[in-house]
Amino acid sequence: MSNLIRTDHHQLPKKRKRGETRVFRLKTFGETGHPAEMNELSFRDNLGKLLEFGHFESSGLLGSWSFQLEVHRHPNPLHVLLFVVEEPIEASLNLRCNHCQYVGWGNQMICNKKYHFVIPSKETMAAFLKLEGGGCASPEKESLAHLVELQGHVLHGFFHSNGFGHLLSLNGIESGSDLTGHQVMELWDRLCTGLKARKIGLSDASHKKGMELRLLHGVAKGESWFGRWGYRFGSGTYGVTQKIYEKALESIRNVPLCLLNHHLTSLNRETPIILSKYQTLSTDPLITLSDLFMFMLHLHSRLPRDNYMNNSRNQIISIDSANCRWSQKRIQMAIKVVIESLKRVKYRWISRQEVRDAARNYIGDTGLLDFVLKSLGNQVVGNYLVRRSLNPVKKVLEYCLEDISNLLPSGNNELITLQNQNPMGKTTTTTNGHNKITRGQVMKDIIYFYKHILMDYKGVLGPLGGILNQIGMASRAVLDAKYFIKEYQYIKDTSAKTFHLNQAEKLGIFCTIAWKCHHHNNEIVMPPQECIVVNKDATWSEVYGEAERVFREIYWELRDVVVESVANGQREIITRVDQIAMNGNKGLVLEGNVGMMMNIEVMKCYDDDNNKKDKRIECECGAKEEDGERMVCCDICEVWQHTRCVGVQHNEEVPRIFLCQSCDQHLIPLSFLP
């Protein structure tokens, strides 16, 4: 995931002269003062300040700006272009925003404009120039209308004019970008914070090496990859709710490794070997699946790309004789006795007590045996893996010997893998120079565990099949939770809803307009509060006029709204403008009316929208509304269901004639009629 953008110089920037091209530093772009002092209380005012520093592109109906961002200067200068494209509602194919509906904001009012922030990839820029009819044309001289329609940008997010927004695309190094996913995401988050966005939604399709990151990071850290930037569950697909998502994630994270380790041998001999490697590398015990994936991700992030870390497989025991009761010679002898005892049972699982009793025929020191048995668990000794696991039924430790000579590189030479803790609590090991572990090997092992543990094990029989199938079903629920939201609480965190500005000469007021929505049974509708600025001695007429101007500018449905009065509940509290602060932190609620012509347009829009909503969605997964996933309609009862839920695979076409299960069963008796 990668590609990020610009930011200007350390000092406060001056506005660009006509014809001058400015370069901004990517690392700080979007912060206050880089390039604009975005210290206003509303999204639209901060956006206006930012765009003053952009290079304006004349593009007809869609206004656009560009910013040149410097990624680095050395060893070779690298720049990327950030485009901001203003899309008025007249240029939109749909008045309603599908992204808002899927993420759970389907009742949001229609805004007049969208503002797209786009960093094109090399491929999308080439496709755009081709669409514009000139492979060598400069994007600054062409219309950017087609740019926002292309898929695969390094960054593509947009804001509605009320500050709600959506992150649509984020691609990093794996997609050919010069920027990492973290760089791009840091840029986007700075923009949202600086512009004072309200809420941002996204559909999480982040992946790496074929792994869905919302599952991998969810199991390891309890949150999606976007969680580090504050994104939390918004809504799911296929009927997945927040409760289902959280329960599924918790159930996977808490799976004991000893339970898996006990059963995985019968399915795959390599899994326990890899698992034991990381259990030895970790200084803390790895108890659950969450511990395992968390440690592996942490280890992968810490290993340098061109360096290595010693693999514990070839560690040789070395215990400080001053702090240990037994010499190295006695310990090595005890290890060989235990190995021979396990060989005699022909690679079966036997209890710890049985191993101990067999070894006591040759080693009389029970303390030494206990020490060796504790140290040997899940370690490699020569060509054998000594596996130790807790029997989930009998609740006792069991040991098993596994021959892994065919999996080891040549020259192993009976090296003993053992990491011991002496009575003083001090761990002592030494290593030889063989068999290093690299960053790439760790990633390969992460992919291996992801595929063999987290994904579905359909068709696996017995107790193991039950365990892995349960993990697979829970993983499916986690993957079906796709929509995540971050709320930027700059208004909610403000204790007061009235501010004195410019040496108390101006008054900032958070307010909203309550109006009757005629297309919905005259229901009272109130958009989110906006900040209006008036003189401290303003009249009510001036307050009404400023509120009308602001809300007309933001919302299509309020283009001709007329504010008539203060809402009933506030009339007794507020009789003058300077008494608004007496209303505490509730903000000002005004009453308004929308003209008849606008009401007709709004009703037509919602009638068209309701025609879509009139289709019945009753899927067996529990879904009652569209969630962005593919659906199919029954040709008899006209009920819509997910194609996946009715057995149509993702790569299959939707049947031309489809009958749901209920209708199909009712038609069976009719087939016998003459």
UniProtKB/TrEMBL annotation:
Gene3D superfamilies in alphabetical order: Zinc/RING finger domain, C3HC4 (zinc finger) (3.30.40.10)
MF annotations from Gene Ontology: zinc ion binding
All residue ranges annotated as the Zinc finger PHD-type domain in the record: 618-664
Top-rank taxon: Eukaryota
Annotated InterPro entries: MS1-like_ubiquitin, WHD_PTC1, Zinc_finger_PHD-type_CS, Znf_FYVE_PHD, Znf_MS1-like, Znf_PHD, Znf_PHD-finger, Znf_RING/FYVE/PHD
Signal sequence extent: none
Pfam families named in the record: PHD, Ubiquitin_At1g33420, WHD_plant_repro
Record SUPFAM superfamilies: FYVE/PHD zinc finger (SSF57903)
Record keywords, A-Z: Metal-binding, Transcription, Transcription regulation, Zinc, Zinc-finger
Protein name: PHD finger protein MALE STERILITY 1
Organism: Cardamine amara subsp. amara
